[in-house]
Specification:
This protein is an alpha+beta fold. It has 14 helices and 10 strands. The relative contact order is 0.12.
């Protein structure tokens, strides 16, 4: 685990220290007696312990596909296109309302079955993972009596069976999903126009972070919220709050951002609504986790032969991806922490040496993270803000290699002659 975390962009042989460690890793992945869930179990338990110290924890769920097209691994299935080969991963990612990652809380991994002659696909319905995800959180909730859990998901989770199941369980976990369906209400009105009748409750303003091909910009939205009863089958309804956040004054040529959310929570004023929108915006953190997993840990390049081996490797790399994301957030939110709580002395020295600088006696976490990111391509200009996960993970590779060199020279008694 330590080797993979230190060199997340490396292949398994490169991440391991020598042939013996490489063979041990492959034997581990090939061990049929090791279930990938057992690998994640200690991390799940530690994540729950970190959650217990928080009053509110956002439990983000989403699915990502891993494309192993061109590889001959057994057990893979079709992806978005039937000719693609790969698998799916659906984790529950716990973060604080301040977006500090607490860890992976749950996960599903599977490969689709190919369609039959009639165009039908066998196997369990994939939509069940959203409902099962909520049920597992509901099972966890009693063990965290001082922590309110909030299930947060995008439009794919806008399913009446999920909401009905939550209401049936008396909503031990709050739920907040982005609406995909402009449903008919019991009086035949449509949900979204019904919600935006009358004056807005208020406005919010936030900075939309830059993304590939899109510059950062200020977003201003008007807010509406309405408590509604949603049809849930014959003579059944689900009580929910519908929220609409509609951008106004968007730049010319830019599509205004409009979010429509559904939640079990009651929100009657702009303060409560803006809090829920901020929680929904935290959903981007799971996209960052997937980004680190794919582009940082390069899991789609794993060549392990079978889906079972890949699943065991993914269990490890999910934790590695969380550690990188956690490091990035802690560097921003707790910049003055002692860097030695996160890095050993050789790693700190290597980060400074690669920037042609000497490490101070008591380096702060933010300083070391920025040094690592600069090695990974972060320019550290005043206008650049704080480094992202990509430059951190790329910098870690070189910093770890340099730290290993420093350690080797010390063990050989050559360090003093090479400084």
């Amino acid at each position: 685990m330590e080797s993979m975390a230190a060199t997340p962009t490396a292949s398994v042989p490169k991440a391991c220290n020598g042939w013996g460690e490489t063979m041990a890793a492959y034997r581990f992945f090939d061990n049929a007696n090791v279930d990938w869930r057992a690998i994640l179990e200690p991390h799940w338990q530690q994540t729950a312990q970190r959650m217990a110290a928080r009053s509110v924890v956002l439990c983000l769920q989403d699915t990502t596909e891993l494309d192993f097209n061109g590889q001959q691994a057994q057990g893979l299935g079709p992806l978005s296109y039937e000719a693609q080969r790969g698998m799916y991963v659906h984790p529950t990612y716990a973060v604080t309302t301040a977006r500090e990652p607490l860890g992976i809380l749950d996960a599903w991994m599977w490969a689709r079955e190919p369609k039959d002659r009639d165009g039908q696909r066998g196997g369990p319905k994939e939509s069940l993972r959203w409902i099962e995800g909520y049920e597992r959180l509901a099972e966890l909730a009693p063990s965290l009596p001082d922590t309110r859990l909030v299930y947060v998901a995008d439009r794919e989770a806008d399913m009446m069976p999920l909401m009905a199941r939550a209401q049936e369980l008396a909503c031990p976990v709050d739920w907040l999903v982005r609406a995909a369906h402009n449903r008919c209400l019991p009086d035949s009105e449509k949900l979204w126009p019904h919600t935006t009748q009358g004056e807005a409750l208020g406005q919010i303003e936030f900075t939309l972070a830059a993304r590939p091909g899109t510059k950062a910009r200020i977003v201003r939205q008007q807010l509406w919220a309405r408590r509604v009863e949603l049809c849930a089958g014959k003579n059944k309804t689900v009580s929910a709050t519908c929220i609409v956040a509609r951008e106004y004054g968007a730049p010319a040529g830019v599509k205004p951002i409009e979010w429509r959310l559904l939640t079990n929570r009651v929100a009657t004023d702009a303060v409560a609504v803006s809090e829920l929108i901020d929680w929904y915006r935290a959903r981007w953190e799971i996209e960052m986790l997937f980004n680190v997993l794919k582009n940082g840990c390069c899991v789609e390049e794993l060549q392990l032969g079978t889906i079972e081996r890949i699943e065991r490797a993914l269990a490890l790399y999910l934790v590695v991806a969380w550690r990188i994301a956690h490091l990035m957030r802690m560097g921003r939110t707790c910049p003055d922490l002692d860097a030695k709580l996160f890095f050993d002395s050789d790693e700190i020295q290597a980060a400074y040496l690669l920037n042609k600088a000497l490490a101070p006696p008591a380096p702060r976490l933010n300083e070391v993270v920025r040094m690592i990111a600069r090695v990974g391509g972060f320019l550290a200009r005043k206008s650049d803000g704080e480094p992202g996960a990509k430059t951190i993970w790329e910098g870690l590779r070189d910093v770890r290699a340099s730290a290993h060199t420093i350690k080797t020279l010390r063990e050989m008694g050559l360090l003093s002659s090479c400084v």
